């Protein structure tokens, strides 16, 4: 940012200030099941059909779908009967639950846990400690307490970790010479 033009239109500042909106659109579409429905349908669907099948408002769903089109998570085909929405290849690969490379579970962990904790970032900086107590009502001294508070929560957290491993695990393993080992144990989960 060295020019006057950069100061007249601070694109990077606007991009940063709106960054969380992009994440939340993607998280919401995953949570509501938009990508899974479109994959299962096998054909493009209109927004009112998607809304009806997912139990949402038609107006809200149409806005969400259009935002996903803008993010290139969905594609839209305009017909005489209206707009028909379908997944992009990236959504089919990473945002549907049934894909071997699905990132759905880590998206839900980020949406329901990380996103909420970051709401309290200023407090974390002031106090120098995590904000699990404010966010979830559990002791800040036990940050894993929320993840392991029930078998359901533990399974969700582990599914999130496994989803990340499905796309970067090979790279992690390739970064180390493990040829002298016959077994590997992941003690961290």
UniProtKB/TrEMBL annotation:
The record's keywords, sorted A to Z, are: Methyltransferase, S-adenosyl-L-methionine, Transferase
The protein, known as: ASMT methyltransferase
Name the Gene Ontology molecular function terms of this record: O-methyltransferase activity; protein dimerization activity
Organism lineage string: Eukaryota, Metazoa, Chordata, Craniata, Vertebrata
Report the residue ranges that make up the O-methyltransferase C-terminal domain in this protein.
118-189
* Gene Ontology BP terms: methylation
SUPFAM superfamilies noted in UniProt? S-adenosyl-L-methionine-dependent methyltransferases (SSF53335), Winged helix' DNA-binding domain (SSF46785)
Which gene produces this protein?
A: Asmt
InterPro entries noted in UniProt: COMT-like, COMT_C, COMT_dimerisation, SAM-dependent_MTases_sf, WH-like_DNA-bd_sf, WH_DNA-bd_sf
Q: Where is the O-methyltransferase dimerisation domain?
A: 14-96
